[in-house]
Amino acid sequence: MVFPSAPYAQNAAASRGRRHDEPESRTRTPFARDRDRIIHTTAFRRLKEKTQVFVAHEGDHYRTRLTHSLEVAQIARSVAAALGLEADLAETIALAHDLGHPPFGHAGEDELDSAMQPFGGFDHNVQTFRVVTRLERRYPRWDGLNLTWETLEGIIKHNGPVTARLERPSWSAVAEFDRGYSLELGGWASAEAQVAALADDIAYNNHDVDDGLVAGMFTLADLMDVPLIGPILHGVKRDYPDLDPAILRMEAVRRMIGAMVDDVIAETTRRVAQTGVASADAVRALDHALVAFSRPMLEDLSALREFLMNRMYRHWRVNRTRSQARRILAEMFQLFMTEPDVLPADIYAALEGRDEASRARAVCDYIGGMTDRFAIEEHRRLFQLEAWT
């Protein structure tokens, strides 16, 4: 099916360009080129062994940051196409949105933020921005990926305006970049970026239900009275009374994704008619999001998240892993700061002459770029002599 282009879509031909001028691709739009640059990054490859909820070594069937990002990108592209938006841009922002996550998910982020409090803190959204504007070094004329203005805007403010955050020490890198190349941080991002943000919500709510069931943290019976997923499960059982539980689970998740996608499209279409937006810049000028869930869907999602919080995110197995993860990162950070000569030679050499804050940021970047597996192995090598035998 071919969907007509919406007047409020971001036109690739009208991109505001890149911070550093370079010839356009002969075969790709600017946003498709951004997507390809993100896919080829070291940071993107490392997502394959970074935690979503379960640490990567716990099993091959649970979502990682990589599989999560691919699911978000697929949903974002589908929703963007249905709304007549620029699908390449939505997909690109979705693929990039988790590049700055450290090992061990939110536990890792919390620990790095704690360790970095004297030096500006840590925020995974800012780290994603630093990855694509500074830390990935692949080109002879600039650091970072030199992404288009629209992609950078979407990466840093896909959840809405961020001006109020610029006063936080952890956002200093974004504030500094914006002073030299304004991303209009006080306004909303494109509709494509907003689609990527809600695709993230759709993906993680559904795959957390799926992974929680596979992990045995709750059962299908436990979900029967939970808003959104409960009525869907009843519907599947009504349609297929003797369905194998594994297929029942997958069919219910498939239908829940469909229900959430349909809701976003319907609510966004309503808001388009209400606001009369007729250009991408008009979307940015609104005082509220254009792409959104309906109020009933938000209420159902709130109840589902509460269930997942109680039965999964605070489960003793997850708590135990979170505790171990925080200790691993805390001990490595402290050791690298007090004995930097145990760092890899290239990183240690780059620390020469730096002040304490910049040395801490370099250590944080090194730890933040680790996969779960590498962090576990590096910690073992640092603190257990027999790991070398």
Automatic annotation (TrEMBL):
PROSITE patterns: HD (PS51831)
HAMAP family: dGTPase_type2 (MF_01212)
Highest taxon in the source lineage: Bacteria
Domain HD: 65-205
CDD domains in the record: HDc (cd00077)
Family as reported in the entry's similarity comment: Belongs to the dGTPase family. Type 2 subfamily.
A Pfam family matched in the record: HD_assoc
Protein keywords: Hydrolase
Region (Disordered): 1-32
UniProt xrefs under InterPro entries: dGTPase, dGTPase-like, dNTPase_2, HD/PDEase_dom, HD_domain, PHydrolase_assoc_dom
Protein name: Deoxyguanosinetriphosphate triphosphohydrolase-like protein
BP-aspect Gene Ontology terms: dGTP catabolic process
GO molecular function, one term: dGTPase activity
Signal peptide positions on this chain: none
Keyword Hydrolase: yes
Coiled-coil region list: none
Compositionally biased tracts (Basic and acidic residues): 19-32
